[in-house]
Amino acid sequence: MAEDGPQKPQLEMPLVLDQDLTKQMRLRVESLKQRGEKRQDGEKLLRPAESVYRLDFIQQQKLQFERWNVVLDKAGKVTITGTSQNWTPDLTNLMTRQLLDPAAIFWRKEDSDAMDWNEADALEFGERLSELAKIRKVMYFLITFGEGLEPANVKASVVFNQL
Q1: Top-confidence residue, 6 or 113
Q2: Using CA atoms, how far apart are residues 13 and 141, in angstroms rounded to an integer?
Q3: What pLDDT, on a 0 to 100 scale, did the predictor assign at position 88?
Q4: 53 phi and psi angles, rounded to 5 deg
Q5: Does Acetylation appear among the keywords (predicted)?
Q6: What is d(CA 116, CA 119) in angstroms, rounded to the nearest whole number?
Q7: CB contact at 8 A, 129 and 158
Q8: What pLDDT sits at residue 1?
Q9: Distance between CA 68 and CA 51 in Å, rounded?
Q10: Strand partners, 105
């Protein structure tokens, strides 16, 4: 078989569970409940099935999105939502307007090893990551776990071609 030219070198960058930030956001929810207060107008509070992940861009320039690499070790669904560069988690609460559209959704059906995903949205989101990498060293994501999944059941990374 003929090849399409030399293979571009690739970088795979994992989405890593940020346990400290997830804990901090859960404490915010608990604090509001204990004091009987409501969230700020437009504030995004972390739900029990959500965790905060981060992607550290080990390279910021000359990246071209290639693919998502998401593995679910059992049936279920995950939704990966990016956050905007305006969110500084150590200084401000996460606002709903800082959640990026579209989200990437991946699922695996019972009795199947095949992964499915919302391909067009996941690709559009992935392509935006190449642009966001130019202006960020780190990016945060909310991962929502559905249908019995939890962080231990998911491995996610983004694969980029190096230009």
Answers
A1: 113
A2: 13
A3: 74
A4: -120, 160
A5: yes
A6: 8
A7: yes
A8: 46
A9: 19
A10: 79
3-state secondary structure of 158: strand
- Reading the block at residue 144, the tokens are 């929502």
CA–CA dist 145, 114 (Å, integer): 18
Mean pLDDT of 7-12: 88
Distance from C-alpha of 121 to C-alpha of 124, rounded to nearest angstrom: 5
Contact assessment for residue 12 and residue 65, using Cβ atoms and an 8 Å cutoff: no
Both tokens of 42, joined, read 């437009």
By the 10 Å C-beta count (0-12 exposed, 13-18 middle, 19+ buried), 78 is classed as buried
Backbone angles phi and psi of 72, in degrees to 5:
-110, 125
Contact between 60 and 132 (Cβ < 8 Å) = no
What is the Cα 54 distance to its own chain's centre? 7
Closest of 99, 102, 86 to residue 52, by C-alpha: 99
**Does the predicted TM-score (pTM) go above 0.85?**
yes
